[in-house]
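Q: Convert this sequence to structure tokens.
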Amino acid sequence: PYQRAELSTVPTVYQPWDLQHRHLPHLFSKASARYRDRLYRAYCQAAAVVVVPTGFVRDDVIASYGLEPNKVVVIAPYVATAATGLADARSAGSVSAGSGGGEPFALYPARTWKHKNHTGLIEALAVCRRDGIDVPVVCTGAPLGNEDDLRTLASELGVADLVEFTGFVSDAEMADLQRRARLLIFPSRFEGWGYPVIE
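A:
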């Protein structure tokens, strides 16, 4: 699941999720973007096979790093809910995470990395409220440490009551939230795969 590797004389398989640093460089320090690009290029070129999640990433990796097309293969990642299904959550009963009052809510399952665009989501909630539409949103994902900044923004824009950060939730809780949510919100600026949409 990590985009790191080791250079070795042993044939290896490398799996870059995406080349986001090339498309959204403003979300990275210049040093970080250069570091990522140098390593990804080296790992891709050294690997016997490069596995990517989508055709988009395949085309991107080939064009960016000059790889032979037959070296790069698409293997879609496994999606856990495909096996467990939402029906299991129905029989398990409701879980405590998210919109405990039973009100309709939207779900955004994503850690608060910059490209996931929680800032844009909060700004959109403020626009909706100004137009007389309140959209409560449950945001799941293990904390990264910037959630307080997002809560402050929500407070400044008058929508703090509409945004709930639950932190990490279990598979059963996620399935239950997916079942109970009125809709999925996915304002991410860049994805190589996008698990929540597939789930």
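The mean pLDDT is 89.
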